[in-house]
Amino acid sequence: xxxxxxxxxxxxxxxxxxxxxxxxxxxxxxxxxxxxxxxxxxxxxxxxxxxxxxxxxxxxxxxxxxxxxxxxxxxxxxxxxxxxxxxxxxxxxxxxxxxxxxxxxxxxxxxxxxxxxxxxxxxxxxxx
Length: 128
Description:
This protein has four helices and no strands. The N and C termini lie far apart (55 Å). 91% of the residues lie in helices and 0% in strands. The chain is mostly helical and 128 residues long. The radius of gyration is 20 Å and the shape is elongated.
């Protein structure tokens, strides 16, 4: 599915949500969440192309597989955190969205620790 099709679905769903929100707010929230999930599912096939491109670039740059794996995990957590928080906001749960973002940031820091440790080791090996 092309980006134009995904964006068209999102805009049509947004218009329907605006109309439904006046008469059936609970249905509008469900439609909004469903449209968001559909947009994400439609974008998933592109993920294979992105992964293969990143893998090729990492190999060309001499990046170790374990670092690439960690980097992909960081990217995945960041994307899922954002999607989850935005879904919470769509449901009117701003507090839950903020807590979701905080939990995601903690996870991102824990995933970044190996990078920080490797960087520190490199710096210490260079320093006199």
